[in-house]
Amino acid sequence: MTTLNGLSAFPITPSNADGVVDLPALRQLLSPLMAAQVDSIGLLGSTGTYMYLSRAERRRVIETAVEAVAARTPILVGIGALRTDEAVRLAQDAKAIGAAAGLLAPVSYTPLNDDEVFEHFETVARDSGLSICIYDNPGTTHFRFSPALVGRLSRIPGIVAIKSPAPDAESIAAHLAELNSTSAEGFSLGYSGDWNSVEGLLAGASTWYSVLGGIFPEICVTIVRAVEKGDAAEARRLNVSLEPIWDLFKTFSSLRVVYAIAEARGICRAHPPRPILPLPTEARQRVVKTLGDLAPEFAR
């Protein structure tokens, strides 16, 4: 059974205006993640714009990543789709190609209730045989997982983890405790929302699902290893040092900012898929200046 812990790094999926993935650029993005020894790679997450890519392009992405990683790092793959049968097929693709787990969000046009979400997840886990991480992303799905529903899902064979949006630092320990109280033993509890996730790790969460980790893995790995060593002061110091990046994420969205970072670093010139627009010139200049000011930390 797949276990998710430590740093799960989420890169963008560079593609052209027609949705054709730039595979050499993807390999360039994956290489530093492996060099930094991230604990897993979150492929085709929201940062990886999975909902904007066809099934065929998703397959190309997974095939390229599995070949590049060569089993050294587990790959978690976004498998969300509007229809349950399509999510099953995407999960089957991911498993057949070599992904370790699928990241499943309850994507829907019509709002879903708890029983519908439960059946959706149960079906995908059963019919695909792929380990599943619950993707709680109410900002895009408009569905929020209650602790009670997480508890029910955690007892389905093959559903092994949850990626939750991190609440504010003052609330995260209580949120984690509530999830722990309902979840099955061994179920992995992790957080996204980079600026609050460090407090989640310090409170006992298993995993940090990180956007920044997908473009600057070294400093994110350093933070996670500090937590693992019990050095809360160092983990918090590094997190505070990244406040300028967190401010950019909050102001412009992490997706747009990471695309701007990838271009500024010369990795690729890909733009996010339309209708999402790249940052305007003034905002891109702010990103570049922020990176220059933070260069010593990113050199770690």
How do you describe this structure in short?
The chain is an alpha/beta fold and 300 residues long. The chain contains 14 helices and eight strands.
Backbone structural class: alpha/beta
According to DSSP, the number of beta strands is 8
Please give the largest β-sheet.
8 strands, parallel, barrel
Q: Briefly, what CATH class?
A: Alpha Beta
The CATH superfamily turns out to be Aldolase class I
Low-confidence stretches: none
The CATH topology assignment is TIM Barrel
Helical amount among residues, as a percent range? 40-55%
What is the averaged pLDDT score? 95
- Give the spatial strand order of the biggest sheet: 1-2-3-4-5-6-7-8
Supply Rg: 18 Å
Secondary-structure element pattern, one letter each: EHEHEHEHEHHEHEHEHHHHHH
3D architecture notes:
By secondary structure, the chain is of the alpha/beta class. It has a single domain, classed as Alpha-Beta Barrel (TIM Barrel). Helices cover 50% and strands 12% of the residues. The protein has 14 helices and eight strands. Strands 1-2-3-4-5-6-7-8 form an eight-stranded parallel β-barrel, surrounded by six helices. Strand 1 (6-9), helix 1 (23-35) and strand 2 form a beta-alpha-beta unit. Helix 2 runs parallel beside helix 3 (84-97). The radius of gyration is 18 Å and the shape is globular.
